[in-house]
Design brief:
453 residues; alpha/beta; TIM Barrel; nine-stranded mixed sheet; 14 helices; 20 strands; 29% helix; binds (4S)-2,6-dioxohexahydropyrimidine-4-carboxylic acid; binds zinc ion
């Protein structure tokens, strides 16, 4: 493989940004050097005025294969990733069928092998009965447990979750919302629309009811999330288990998490919980219906503060594409989820330009942090011997979000029409240039990550 020299740029690391040339060969970083040195290379790329970051690692995406290719597939999903500066994703198990057994996991491995532009890891899910399969599974980032139902209806009851904490030998990543509280709230808030509970316990609403999408944030309230976080943290403490809370969205969840710092519990925040609030239902309706829901402006502010204070360890997208037609349905039928991969790095770089974030925080939250927390071998740093997964960014370049230019198959974004200052201009995966200036220019070189590093 060619030796490539990225010359005259700056390198981003967890301590800040420094001037350096970066030499890569055979998919690895040979080293970083002071400017002005002489280094043999087959190709030299001038990075003057640009910053070279470790490729971003997104530990929370839903690429919809197997089973729902009409929403997203591994070509479009991983194209969206590299366009958004992401060189490694961890894909969630709520597929059709869900990934619950070692056989399911192997089938998914076979299905996606050779079809990804970026590197990847594959989660296994928990259905209340598959702890032995989870314990047998090799090389997964973690097991994903849904405390409440969301897309795929993988919610499981508290007793089985207790079992999981006692018996499972993997890290646990949790979708923390309290199902019972959600059901109660739904009955309450939807009764004014004529909702009734049937003999099967299911809630039904008259077809003609015009339900305000903003009710979603009331039904799946911050209290629901905080209650589930507390339940999970207690179990983590009792069992000495490593727990990671997905998409924390509110002050209340963070307050609970602070009480359990002794357990080593970690958490992530999604871009929509940093950018969108319940005020935005008026504009976007069900397009910003997501689980957990968008919160108040105060919560948004708290999430930014939590990042600054180190209370949140990871930013992860929860990229959850659904088609336009699906999202245009009424509240009861519109699925939850927002596509976020294409726009991840422009959003973060814009925040750096605004002074809301520092580049070293981007590296910590999106590169080094996730690599270390999930034990990803060779990932997350621009250092000798690490994988040459790199993203070159231009902090001056404007990125206007246009639906038709997105790589995600669903071709919509709540940020369409927004312009972010700062964006990726080149993305390298394993030393191969795969994305350049708005275009996919490389091959599907993504590989499964090795966990346990
Ligand atoms: O809004 C969401 N969408 N939350 C989830 O937990 C799942 C995701 C999806 O897969 O659509
Ligand atoms: Zn998710």
């Amino acid at each position: 493989m060619a030796k490539i020299l990225l010359k005259n740029g700056q390198v981003g690391c967890a301590l800040g940004v420094y001037d350096a040339d970066v030499l890569i060969e055979d998919g690895k970083i040979v080293n970083t050097f002071d400017w002005g040195g002489k280094h043999e290379a087959d190709e030299t790329i001038d990075c003057k005025g640009k910053i070279i970051l470790p490729g971003l690692i997104d530990v929370h995406v839903h690429l919809r294969e197997p089973g729902q290719k009409y929403k997203e597939d591994w070509t479009t999903g991983t194209q969206a990733a590299v366009a958004g500066g992401v060189t490694t994703i961890c894909d969630m198990p709520n597929n059709v069928p869900p990934v619950l057994t070692c056989e399911d996991l192997e089938a998914k491995r076979k299905l996606v092998a050779g079809r990804a532009y970026c590197n990847y890891g594959l989660y296994m899910g928990f259905n209340g009965q598959n702890i032995s399969e989870i314990n047998k599974a090799q090389n997964i980032p973690a097991v994903k447990v849904y405390v409440a139902n969301s897309t795929g209806n993988m919610g499981v009851g508290p007793e089985t979750i207790r079992e999981l904490f006692k018996k499972c030998n993997k890290m646990i990543v949790a979708h923390a919302e309290d199902e019972q509280m959600i059901q109660q709230n739904a009955q309450g808030y939807l009764s004014e629309y004529g909702a009734t509970v049937g003999e099967d316990g299911k809630l039904s609403v008259p077809k003609e009811a015009k339900i305000e999408p903003s009710v979603h944030s009331k039904i799946r309230s911050a209290e629901c999330a905080a209650s589930a976080v507390k339940f999970l943290c207690e179990l983590a403490r009792e069992n000495g288990k490593k727990l990671h809370i997905a998409h924390v969205s509110s002050d209340q969840e963070l307050t609970v998490l602070l009480d359990y710092q002794d357990t080593g519990v970690t958490c992530e925040v999604a871009p929509h919980h940093l950018l969108l609030s319940d005020d935005d239902y008026a504009t976007f309706g069900n397009f910003i219906k997501v689980n957990p829901p968008v919160r108040s402006k105060t919560d948004l502010f708290t999430m930014w503060k939590a990042i600054k204070f180190g209370e949140v360890q990871i930013i992860a997208t929860d990229h959850a594409p659904h088609t336009l037609a699906e999202k245009e349905q009424g509240y009861m039928d519109a699925p939850s989820g927002i596509p976020e991969l294409d726009t991840l790095l422009p959003i973060l770089l814009n925040a750096v330009n605004d002074g809301g974030l520092e580049m070293k925080e981007v590296v910590k939250l999106c590169c080094e942090g996730p690599a270390k927390l999930f034990g990803m071998k060779g990932k997350g740093q621009v250092e000798a011997g690490f994988d040459a997964d790199l993203v070159v960014v231009d902090m001056e370049k404007m990125f206007e979000v246009k639906n038709e230019k997105l790589f995600t198959k669903c071709k919509w974004s709540p940020y369409a029409g927004s312009t972010f200052k700062g964006c990726p201009v080149m993305t390298f995966v394993g030393g191969e240039l795969v994305y350049k200036n708005g275009k996919i220019v490389g091959k599907k070189v993504g590989r499964e990550v090795e966990f346990g590093g």
